[in-house]
Design goal:
This protein has a two-stranded antiparallel ribbon with strand order 1-2. The chain is an alpha+beta fold and about 100 residues long. The radius of gyration is 17 Å and the shape is extended. It has five helices and four strands, in the order ββααααββα. The two termini are about 30 Å apart.
């Protein structure tokens, strides 16, 4: 079993006497632009996902989210939530299946 713990602040905590930290995604496009690096062509995520075999879609989304997505209960754009991080600013993370079901009930 894998746990993803979240805590307020910098998301560091102590587990078995070891200080651990959850990693966060940092957008590369604004950083690249400031460094004069051309913006990468990332394409459209929904087109990419639809082009993948069902097994990849299920693995990427998880069983419950995949089934709701395929049934039209939610769109790919619903599969991310926004929050403000005190260090990195505006960040995104996936909602839980329970959150999706509550929002789209």
């Amino acid at each position: 079993m894998v746990y993803n713990l979240q805590v307020e602040g910098d998301e560091s905590y102590v587990a078995n006497g070891i200080v651990v930290h959850n990693c966060s995604q940092i957008p590369i496009v604004p950083i690249a632009a400031r460094l004069g690096i051309p913006e990468p062509d990332m394409g459209n995520a929904e087109q990419w996902l639809r082009a993948q075999p069902e097994s990849v879609q299920r693995e990427m989304l998880g069983k419950g989210v995949y089934e709701g997505y395929k049934a039209g209960k939610w769109k790919l754009s619903d599969l991310t939530t926004t929050y403000e991080d005190s260090v990195y600013g505006t960040m995104r993370r996936p909602p839980t299946l329970e959150m999706l079901e509550a929002i789209h009930a």
